[in-house]
Protein: S9 family peptidase
Organism: Pseudaquabacterium terrae
Amino acid sequence: MLDLRPPGAGVLSPDGKRLYFSWRVTGVDQVWRLDGADRFPLQLTGGEDRTTIAAVSPDGRWLALERDRQGEENPGFYLQAADGGPLREVQHRPGVQTEFQHFSADSRFAYYVSNDVSRDSYAVYRYDIGAARAERLFDGQGFWRVADVQPGRLLLVKATGSRGREWSLFDEATRSATPLLGQGEYSDYVMRFGARPGHYVVVTSKSSGFLRVYEWAAGQSLTPVAVPGGERWDVEGLLLDRARKRLYLTINEAGYTRVQVLDATTLQPLPLPWPAGLDHQIVAAASADGEQVVLALAPPDRPRETAVWNWRDRTLTRWTVPSTPEADTRQFAPATLESYPARDGTPIPMFVRRPARCLAAAEPPCPVIVHFHGGPESQSKPGFSPIWQFFVEAGFVIVEPNVRGSSGYGKAWLDADNGAKRLQVITDIEDAALHLRSAWTRNGVAPRIGVYGGSYGGYAALMAMTRFAGAYDAGVSNVGIANLLSFIENTAPYRRQLRVTEYGDPATDREAMIQLSPTRWVHQLKAPLMIVQGANDPRVPVGEALQMHEVARARGVPLELLLFADEGHGASTRANQALQWGHVLRFFQQHLPGR
C-alpha cells in the first residue's frame, strides 16, 4: 500500500513547459521534473533527507528547495538550477528553521525567514542571487512570514496564536512596517495583494463566523465578495496568480474540496471550466502569466492526479499519473459521510469506510478503529486512502470523526475546544465509542472498538484510553501529548505561544490543563496501549511518550513503545512507515480480533 502514491502537485515553469514536483518513489521525498505532459520524470535531488520544491523563479532559472534532516523540522533553504545539478546552500544550520518565502518579480532576490537570531522569533531576509549575499530586512519579535510580494513591498503576517494573525506592509526602501489588519484583535485574517492598486483580498471569519472573502483597502471597511457555494461553508484557501488575473478559492463543503474562480479585478465569479464532482480538487500553482494552472484532482478510487488547465486554448491536460502497482483501486472502500450524537445532542460528522463483508446483516459486527485527526485545527476528509484500505482489507471498519475543535465547520465549532473550554467537549471522544457500540450492535453482539490518532489525535487516543477507560478496547497513540503542562514547557520555542492559545496557558489554566492531561487519568488505564514516537520530534517532544510509557507500566496492561531514532513528528521514510503501520495493524489484530 505504501507504493500507491501520487507525485506532489508541483509548480510550473514560467513558460508552462515544465512541471517540478516532489515524489516519494525513492522512499523519501525528492524533487523531480517533467519536460511535458506524460513524459518520463527526471530526478533532480537525491539522498536520504526529505527534499521538497517551494517555487520556480519568475525567469525560470532557479528552483527554491527545502531540505530537512531526519524529521527534525529544521529545514534549510537551497537553490538549484532549473536544469538540475548541485544545490547551492543559502542557509541550513543545526537547530534552526530556514524557510523560503518568495522570489522577487525580477528574480533578483529570494526572500526567506529564519529563527537563527532567536529560536522563538523569525527574521525576514533578502538573498541576492547574483551576489550570493543575504541581508536581514526585518527582525520584529514573533512568528513572522512573507505572504506576498510586490516590487519594493512585502506583505508580512505575524501569527499571534493558533489562529490569530496580524498583517503589515513592509517597505524595503525605508525598512519600515505599517500595520494593516488584525493588530490586537486575535482574528483569523488571510491576505494577498489585490489586482487593483492599494486593494487586498482578505479571507476571515470575523464577521460571519465562517471564512468568507472580502476586498479591503486601508481606511475602508471590509467589502463582502459573493462566492458561489461559499454561503454555507468555509473558504479554506486562496491563490491569486502572480499576474493578478484570476483568484482561485478552495471551498470546504463538509470535508469535500471544491474550487471557485473569480476575475481578480472585478471579483466576479467565472464559470468553472474543468470537470467538477471529484472528492477534492485544488489549484496548486499558476504559471507566471496566469494563463496555466496546476490542478490536483483527487477521485475517490485512485491516487491524486496532476493536470494543467490552459486558459488560452481551454484544454485540460494530465501531466502525472499516480503509481498503483499490483492493486485494483476500483475495489477500494469509499468513505461515506455519517454522524453520531454527542451527549448534548450535537451531531458529530464522521467519515466511515467499511469492508464489503461488514455490510451483510447476517455477519457478526466487524471490529472498528476510530481515527482522530491531528491539529486539532484540522479535519478528516473523504477520498483515496491506501493506509486505511490496508486496514479495511484486514477486516476493520474505519471511522474518522470531526469532533468539536475541527476546522471546516465555522468559527464556533473550531473554537469550541480552546483552552479550558476543552473540558466541555472532550467527551466527544467517548461519545463516538458509546454510539458505535450501541448503534452497530448486531444480533446482540457489540463490535470491538479501537482508537488511533497522531499528534493531537495521539493525545485524543491517550485520553480515550485513560480519562474514558473502558470506552475503547485497545489504543495506539502516535506522537501524542501525554501532559499538557510538560508539552507547553518543552515544545519548540517557536510553537509555544501558538499552542498556548489552543491548549491553555499554564499561568491561568493550570488546573484545567491538569484535568485534560492523559497522565492525570492513567490510573484508570485498563486496555492494551501502543505508543509510537520519533526521537527528533520538535513539536511533541519524545519526553511525552517516555513519561506516558513510564506511568502506564504500573497498570500491568499490555503496553508497547515503538521509538524511531531517525524520525520527528511522524515517520517519513518508507522503511519506517512500513514498520509503523505493520506494527499498528499487528497490535489491533491481536487485541481486536474479528469474530
Remarks:
- The domain at 338-591 is CATH 3.40.50.1820 (Rossmann fold).
